[in-house]
């Protein structure tokens, strides 16, 4: 699963994908490493148009996964959208898109130490978006913080394309590469979402050097 991604394009690039967006992120610095349970920029529906704001990565976990646990670290990647747990957040008002420029999958080989492999749409790391959902939720994320109310997000996964499958054969994020795809995800009928939960075509991604 994808538990690490980066966003190195500025917020002006994000705003350029949306008409009349309300940017609530302030001065957004480059984010070369975004990890679970950290805050990251997300675009969702607002009262008068799209809103860019910071949310915490990790949707509420299903009840069965929390048995015997004192904290909920959240679910970063969502695959089974037929589950009643996720269905409640698939309506348009709970959909969002998550800007990124590269994402990582762990390469695990017998006898070798796991290492991250980074993927992007090109060497120049053009901006794209994960198809996601969000909610406001009260829970205990960390014992030392106690109960907090947060805006939480996660993004959908699907079967991998050829590039990602060579590293991680189980899944890849659902990626939107054009403004039309972004708007379709945000506004589509819920019944149409399974058609949008698809991998990028083979050849659409390339492995990049994270230090470049």
Automatic annotation (TrEMBL):
Domain of life the protein comes from: Bacteria
Its EC number(s): 3.4.-.-
One Pfam family in the UniProt entry: SRAP
Record bears the keyword Protease: yes
UniProt keyword Lyase, yes or no: yes
UniProt keyword annotations, A-Z: Covalent protein-DNA linkage, DNA damage, DNA-binding, Hydrolase, Lyase, Protease
Family to which the UniProt record says this protein belongs: Belongs to the SOS response-associated peptidase family.
PANTHER family: ABASIC SITE PROCESSING PROTEIN HMCES, DC12-RELATED
Name of protein: Abasic site processing protein
């Amino acid at each position: 699963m994808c538990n690490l991604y980066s966003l190195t394009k500025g917020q002006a690039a994000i705003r350029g994908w949306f008409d009349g967006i309300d940017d609530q992120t302030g001065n957004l610095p480059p984010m070369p490493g975004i990890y679970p349970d950290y805050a990251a920029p997300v675009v969702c529906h607002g009262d008068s148009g799209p809103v860019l704001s910071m949310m915490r990565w990790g949707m509420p976990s299903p009840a069965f996964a929390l048995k015997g646990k004192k904290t909920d670290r959240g679910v970063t990647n969502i695959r089974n959208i037929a589950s009643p747990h996720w269905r409640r957040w698939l309506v348009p008002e709970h959909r969002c898109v998550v800007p990124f420029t590269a994402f990582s999958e762990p390469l695990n080989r017998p006898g070798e130490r796991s290492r991250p492999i980074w993927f992007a749409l090109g060497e120049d790391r053009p901006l794209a978006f994960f198809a996601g959902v969000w909610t406001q939720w009260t829970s205990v994320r960390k014992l030392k913080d106690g109960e907090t109310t947060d805006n939480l997000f996660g993004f959908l996964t699907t079967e991998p394309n050829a590039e990602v499958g060579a590293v991680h054969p189980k899944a890849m994020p659902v990626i939107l590469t054009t403004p039309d795809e972004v708007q379709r995800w945000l506004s589509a009928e819920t019944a149409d979402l399974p058609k949008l939960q698809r991998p990028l075509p083979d050849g659409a991604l390339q492995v990049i050097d994270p230090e470049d």
